[in-house]
Amino acid sequence: MRAMSKPDLTTPDQAFLQRLKDLPLFQHLGEYSIPETTFTQRRLPSSQEVNKHLHSITWENFTLEARNRLTMYLSKKHPKEDRLWNAITEAYKPELSYFKPTIEKYMREYHLDDAFAHDFDWNILGMCMENHYQKIAPRLPSFFLDFLPLYEAGHIPCGWEGPVQEEYTGKPIDKSAGILLVY
Questions:
Q1: Is the pLDDT of residue 149 over 80?
Q2: pLDDT for 4
Q3: Distance of CA 41 to CAs 35, 57, 96, Å?
Q4: Residue 69 and residue 170 in contact, taking contact as beta carbons nearer than 8 Å
Q5: pTM: predicted TM-score of the whole model, two decimal places
Q6: Would you place residue 169 in the very low, low, confident or very high pLDDT band (cuts 50, 70, 90)?
Q7: For an engineered disulfide with 92, which of 51, 68, 98, 128 has Cβ 3.0 to 4.6 Å away?
Q8: Alpha carbons 138 and 154: distance in angstroms, whole number
Q9: So which domain of life are we looking at (predicted)?
C-alpha cells in the first residue's frame, strides 16, 4: 500500500487567485450602492477623502492589528503551519503584479496616490493568507476576507473610524467597535 503524500502547504490556491483576478476591480468607486459586509460602513464622498484615510495611522494600525491577530492565532493554535508564513507569503507576492495595470489606471482616473496601490496589495495579500490558512485551520478568524464583497462590487475599503485595540490571544477584531470607510 502506497503512503499518501502530504499536500505542499506553500503552493498558492490557484482557484482563489483566479477569483481575485476576475473581480470587477474599482469599477464602482464612489458610487452609492455599497454591499453589506460584517462591518458597519460609511461611504466616502471623494477621492481626496480616500487619500487622506489611506494615509491615516488609524487605518494602518487597524489592518496591521488584523494581520497581527492572524499570526498570533496561528502561533498559538497551529505553530507548525505558522512557521510556513514567510514561504506562503513569498509564493503569493508575485501574483500581485497581475493587478498593477488596473491599479495604475484607476489611480490616474481618480487622482489616488501611491497609498492606494500599497493598501490594495496589503489587503489582497491578507485575503490570500486568510484563505490559504482557512484550509488548514477552518475556524481561523477572518478579517481581510470580509473585504471581498466590497472588491466584488467594485469598491474598496479605505479607512476606519473607531478604536484599534491591541490584543495578544488571537481573538478576532471587534468589527462592531467602529465604522469601515468605503469608496
A1: yes
A2: 44
A3: 9, 19, 26
A4: yes
A5: 0.92
A6: confident
A7: 128
A8: 27
A9: Bacteria
CA angle 46, 52, 53 (to 5 degrees): 95
State whether the Cα torsion 86-89-91-93 is positive or negative.
negative
> Which of 175, 144, 159, 154 has the alpha carbon at shortest distance from 33?
154
Place of cell 489587503: 123
- Identify any residues that bridge with 159 across adjacent strands, giving them in sequence order: 181
75's grid cell: 502561533
Question: With contact defined as beta carbons under 8 Å apart, do 74 and 133 qualify?
Answer: yes
Residue type, 36: E
Strands 179-182 vs 157-161: parallel, antiparallel or unpaired:
antiparallel
Phi, psi of 150 (to 5 degrees): -70, -45
pLDDT at 122: 98
Is the pLDDT reported for residue 7 higher than 70? no
Average the pLDDT over 100-108 and give the result: 98
Give the number of other Cβ atoms within 10 Å of residue 87's Cβ. Answer: 12
Does the pLDDT of residue 2 top 90, yes or no? no
Q: Are 147 and 170 in contact (CB under 8 A)?
A: no
- Alpha-carbon span 66 to 16, nearest angstrom: 20
Nearest to residue 23, comparing CAs of 182, 153, 181?
153
Length of the chain: 183
